[in-house]
Amino acid sequence: MSRGQASGPNAIGTAQLLVVLLAFCWGMVWIATAFALPEIKPWTLRTVCIGIGAATLFVVARLAGFDLNVPRRERIHVMVGGFFNLAAFHVLTAFAQLNGATSRTIVITYSMPIWATLLSVVMLHERLGRARIVAFSLCVAGLGVLIWPLLANGVPVFALYSLTAAVSWAFAIVYMKWMRVTVPPLANAAWQLLFAFVVLSVGTLTFEGVPRLWPLSTPALVAVLYIGVLGVGLAHFLFWSIVGRLSTVAAALGMLLVPVVGIISSTLLLGERPTVPDIVGFALIFMAAASVLLWPAVTPTK
Questions:
Q1: What span, in angstroms and rounded, lies between the C-alpha atoms of 259 and 47?
Q2: What gap in Å lies between CA 232 and CA 228, rounded to an integer?
Q3: How far is Cα 119 from Cα 136, in angstroms, rounded to an integer?
Q4: Strand positions, DSSP E, the chain
Q5: SS3 at position 128
Q6: Which residues, in sequence order, are bridge partners of residue 126?
Q7: Does 1 score more than 80 pLDDT?
């Protein structure tokens, strides 16, 4: 058994519970965002939430005794990752939700593993086997089924935002592998969050001016605190704790559960009613993501 993974059934059971908890933390972020956006501008919302999340993660990591040091030569790579993986991703998904249904935004955004696979072929020279080709085909079919009924009024803006967010996230993940970054995962996440907060703060001042967060309704205030403390700070801590306890495949299940939680919650709490194309598109993209995440990893070509 590899170092850092669970060594007993009790520890593994605890990690599996953490996977479920993580799925709810990330899945409910979409719902909280839907409650907050009517009262808070997108840049401001993301800046405040990322700031709260960064502070939470640093505090929890320090209390847990984790080393958050980043080698000087790798700091630039952490900043690049933070820009694409957090700053760009969070702003793009916020604008996507402003322009489209939350459930559809979730479905398109969680095509992320597909784009990571394709980018790994280009940047890491990994082989794209038959299973990955099938997964990509399923993803394209799912996106087509989802978006086609909406094309009567032109290409949906929310879809462009969602796809760009998905590709941005995927690029950050592959970039970190491409650059052979050795920063411990939790330190990487903490400093990416801090850098993303700086970038988002500049964006907020540029596009929206000085943030205004008062007065806020109780639901909006609770949503902001939820996203920052649980959806960003605690969720990142949980994710990297899970990676240390379970195999990569088992940890990947957390990502697969997130859109399920998000879509069911958007139906129950936001009153969204998925159409038949929505359901079919979600099923196809979910199967594609499952194929990529759960299929045995390929090795780079020599």
A1: 23
A2: 5
A3: 12
A4: none
A5: coil
A6: 300
A7: no
Could you read off the pLDDT of 195-209 as tens digits, one per residue? 999 999 999 999 999
Q: How many degrees, rounded to 5, is the angle at CA 252 between CA 250 and CA 256?
A: 115
Residue 298: DSSP 8-state: P
The pLDDT of residue 8 is: 56
Give Rg (Cα) of the chain.
19
How long is the chain? Answer: 302
Look at the alpha carbons of 118, 134, 111, 104 in this order and tell me if their dihedral is positive or negative: positive
Query: pTM score, two decimals?
Result: 0.89
CA separation for the pair 151, 83 (Å, rounded): 31
pLDDT class of 301 with cuts at 50, 70, 90:
very low
- Specify the pLDDT at position 136: 87
Say which amino acid occupies 32: A
Six token digits for residue 175: 């970039």
Helices (H) and strands (E) in the chain, counts: 13, 0
DSSP state of 152: G
On the 0-12 / 13-18 / 19+ scale of CB atoms within 10 A, 206 is exposed
Quote the crossing angle between the two packed helices 102-109 and 130-147, to the nearest 10°: 160
DSSP bridge pairs for 300: 126
